[in-house]
Amino acid sequence: MSAPRLLRAFAVDDEPSILATFRRAFHRDFQLATECDPLRALAQLQACEFDVLFVDYAMPGMNGVAFLERVRRMRPDLPAFLVTAHAPSAATQDAIARGLASAVIPKPWTRQDILHRVDALLPTSPR
Questions:
Q1: Backbone angles phi, psi at 34, to 5 degrees
Q2: 126 — phi, psi (to 5°)?
Q3: DSSP assignment of the chain, as one string?
Q4: Are 107 and 74 in contact (CB under 8 A)?
Q5: In this predicted structure, what is the pLDDT of residue 70?
Q6: pLDDT of residue 5
Q7: Closest of 82, 81, 91 to residue 57, by C-alpha
Q8: Cis (ω within 30 of 0) for the bond into 108?
């Protein structure tokens, strides 16, 4: 009997330290890819399949909402979370209302909070 397949997760954040924390926290929970540059991340999303996406809201050049607008044209059904250190705003709530993001995850996040949100969104996940 083989072990269940880990979810393929992709985290996009302009801060390398946040991505390093993400990798440390979830190395046993996800097959995790990370990217600091939103344009390179879009290219990676075209080339690779992922089960869930985590996107920072405040990134230079392209914020998380603009990034998710482009993602939706490529991958309309990819579950996505918008991660932000800012209080929920009209822009983040609008992203949820428009179906760009499934939820907003506030920073600082906890490992358990993210795992709970992923399990709630993907109840049949192989995790």
A1: -135, 155
A2: -80, 5
A3: -PPPPPEEEEEE-S-HHHHHHHHHHHTTTEEEEEES-HHHHHHHHHHS--SEEEEES--SSS-HHHHHHHHHHH-TT--EEEEESSPP-HHHHHHHHTTS-SEEEESSP-HHHHHHHHHHH-TT---
A4: no
A5: 97
A6: 75
A7: 82
A8: yes
Both tokens of residue 29? Answer: 């929970």
Question: pTM of whole model > 0.90?
Answer: yes
Which structure tokens are listed for 70? 């482009």
Nearest CA to 11 out of 2, 3, 21, 22 is that of 22
Asked if 6 and 31 count as a contact pair (C-beta separation under 8 A), the reply is yes
Where does the pLDDT of residue 127 fall: very low under 50, low under 70, confident under 90, or very high at 90 and above? low
Beta bridge partners of 33: 10
List, for residues 52-65, the tens digit of each pLDDT value. 999 999 999 999 99
Distance, in Å, from the CA atom of 44 to the CA atom of 24, rounded to the nearest integer, reads 21
